[in-house]
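Can anyone check this?
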Amino acid sequence: MADSDNDVLVSADWVEDHLDEFQADDPDYRIVEVNSPESPEEGDFPSRYDDGHVPGAIGLQWDEDLSDQQQRDVLKKADFEEVVGNHGISADSTVVFYGNGWIPNWFALFAYWEFTYYGHDDARVLDGGKDYWVNNDYPLTEAVPEFDAVEYEARGPFESIRAYKDDVDKAREAGVPMVDVRSPEEFTGEILAPEGLQETAQRGGHIPGASNVPVKTNLRDDGRFKEPDELERMYAEEGIDGDESVVTYCRVGERSAIAWFALHELLGYEDVHNYDGSWTEWGNLIRAPIERGEGGD
């Protein structure tokens, strides 16, 4: 599934075969490591960009480089174009994302989703992320590439892959499936955030009607995505078969981007929306309905 030059999910072998292109001045190929300061570190290998990364990789921070921190939103279009172009990525670049964390590619999949939102044609993801790359002895470097800035003109935004609070209200009224990818403890309201992470909401629980499909159930033990037929069966058990709209959400929209990727990109379900406001927005809204406990099935 991951070895083709045309797939959105590419293997570590595929990336290794293209290392020369990723390190070249020509912007045809770019690879990007995406991290966040709140991502818990695990393992005995280099987990941060500065400690070692895929040769040629550009280092981006989810909160500093890909987010509007004043509005807690994705970058505005002009800011997105500036950041991406300044790192030597053109609209024609094949861009591969990967990242670290206790969920492989945690923030890398959000970056993929944001690039897709702004209409980047050829975005891909390293299957298994940095954990898989390092654990299987693929090459690392501490050298930081220097690429010339280029002009970048985004085609988007394409709102069809995004959900806002009003869309969630309509989804609830219409009985549209909603996938809460947080842990069972977050879903039931026992905790507000994973251990070690900031509590961004005042109330615990989940959006009424949502099903709990923890994000790691999309992945194999080694961090790579499960095969499409296995993913299809898993989501079918929650009543999701691609014939209806689906909304994914989590705490701040990054874990839910992984489920969005599995449904929209790997299974080809067309009408899938990532609610990136997620529980940070919903759990702080006055009078927004919530459920606690198992519920939502």
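Reply from J.R.: I decoded it. The longest helix spans residues 255-266.
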